[in-house]
């Protein structure tokens, strides 16, 4: 049997956290900041001022979004952390693997196939997708099911913009997102840790909620490969694994589609996966979270918020649903 150690997020096989990665990161932060990271604490500054491009990739700017809830004033997580502490299993299961190994991903040329229950199926080139709607900057809280969180300034637009243009039929009840699975570009595919390609799904009304985003960039530049270049989903009220990276196909379907994590461990990962401090994962409490960048010796964990703090925007989508059953 394939034994994997220190894989916190690997269904049924892992430890509670990823001790090696966490300690390595703490050490790195403490060295890098010479103690400054410890003082960072809970300070919330003027978020927008911090989202300037780091000058590493092609610029991609967006106007401040007017969508309700789209701009938290919480301090964005440092670019170095956003781009070096990742989950992208196609490049390996350690948090540092995507940053060190995703250089082999070719985000251009790229296209996305739209198929299924739509009046206008077809293939969209990346350039056409980039021009489809005005780019917006949105600063979202992101919460991973493993118990850590970040604040990320994304660049993109509402997924609803694309959905409207392809004209879903009355039978389009759900969307399935299929991501790239190319062994030549993605060394992690050699491991059977997930059933490739990585697939995710949303109910149509969730996909139409304006906070659900197609992201093409972060920190004012195109997405780094490790964050899901050239385009990914971002659904801030759900655990991070719903936010599928490097999407190549969107299917409009009439039945709830399978997702990779449900297929891997249905008891642990449900279709909805809404952030919910009252419903624990079988191996992890979801009541609190560790904000990346606040991991000094005395940093307190933060309480996790219902729907990751987006309840005012999305709560009504789940009115009357038993969220312990539909986790
Ligand atoms: N998308 C693909 N294709 N493959 C993955 O392994 N991991 C998910 C999600 N999208 C994943 C993916 C998980 S578990 C998380 S927490 C987020 O991406 C992490 O996004 P980030 O690395 O940009 O913070």
Question: How would you summarize the topology of this molecule?
Answer:
Layout: H1 19-33, H2 36-40, E1 63-64, H3 79-82, H4 97-101, E2 111-116, E3 122-125, H5 126-131, E4 136-143, E5 148-158, H6 159-166, E6 174-179, E7 199-203, H7 204-208, E8 213-218, E9 221-222, E10 232-234, E11 247-253, H8 260-264, E12 288-291, E13 302-303, H9 311-314
This protein binds ligand MTE.
Ligand MTE is lined by residues 9, 86-90, 144, 179, 198, 227-228, 240-241, 243-246.
Description:
It is a single chain. With 327 residues, the chain is of the alpha+beta class. It has a single domain, classed as Alpha-Beta Complex (Sulfite Oxidase, Chain A, domain 2), CATH 3.90.420. The protein is 17% helix and 20% strand. The chain has nine helices and 13 strands. The strands form two sheets. Strands 1, 4, 5, 8, 9, 10, 12 and 13 form an eight-stranded mixed β-sheet that branches. The protein has a five-stranded mixed β-sheet with strand order 3-2-11-6-7. Strand 2 and strand 3 (122-125) form a beta hairpin. 44% of the residues are buried. The structure holds ligand MTE. Ligand MTE is lined by residues 9, 86-90, 144, 179, 198, 227-228, 240-241, 243-246.
């Amino acid at each position: 049997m394939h034994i994997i150690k220190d894989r916190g997020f690997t269904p049924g096989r892992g430890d509670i956290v990823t001790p090696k990665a966490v300690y390595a990161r703490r050490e790195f932060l403490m060295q890098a900041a010479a103690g400054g990271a410890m003082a960072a604490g809970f300070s919330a500054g003027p978020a927008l001022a911090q989202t300037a491009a780091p000058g590493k990739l092609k610029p991609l700017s967006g106007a401040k979004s007017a969508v309700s809830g789209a701009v938290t004033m919480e301090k964005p997580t440092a670019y170095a952390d956003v781009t070096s502490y990742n989950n992208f299993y196609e490049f390996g299961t350690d948090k540092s693997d995507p940053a060190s190994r995703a250089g082999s991903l070719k985000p251009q040329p790229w296209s996305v196939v739209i198929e299924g229950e739509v009046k206008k199926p077809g293939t969209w080139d990346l350039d056409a997708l980039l021009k489809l709607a005005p780019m917006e900057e949105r600063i979202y809280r992101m919460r991973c099911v493993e118990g850590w969180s970040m604040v990320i300034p994304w660049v993109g637009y509402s997924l609803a913009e694309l959905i409207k243009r392809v004209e879903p039929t009355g039978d389009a009840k759900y969307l399935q997102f299929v991501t790239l699975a190319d062994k030549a570009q993605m060394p992690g595919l050699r491991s059977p840790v997930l059933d490739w390609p990585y697939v995710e799904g949303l109910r149509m009304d969730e996909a139409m909620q304006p906070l659900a985003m197609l992201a093409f960039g972060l920190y004012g530049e195109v997405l780094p490969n490790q964050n899901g270049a050239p385009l990914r989903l971002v659904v801030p009220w759900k655990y991070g694994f719903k936010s599928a990276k490097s999407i190549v196909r969107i299917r409009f379907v009439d039945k709830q589609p399978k997702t990779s994590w449900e297929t891997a461990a249905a008891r642990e990962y449900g279709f909805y996966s809404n952030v919910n401090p009252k419903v624990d994962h079988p191996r992890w409490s979801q009541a609190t979270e560790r904000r990346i960048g606040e991991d000094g010796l005395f940093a307190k964990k933060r309480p996790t918020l219902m729907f990751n703090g987006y309840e005012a925007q999305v709560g009504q989508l789940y009115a009357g649903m038993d969220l312990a059953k539909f986790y």
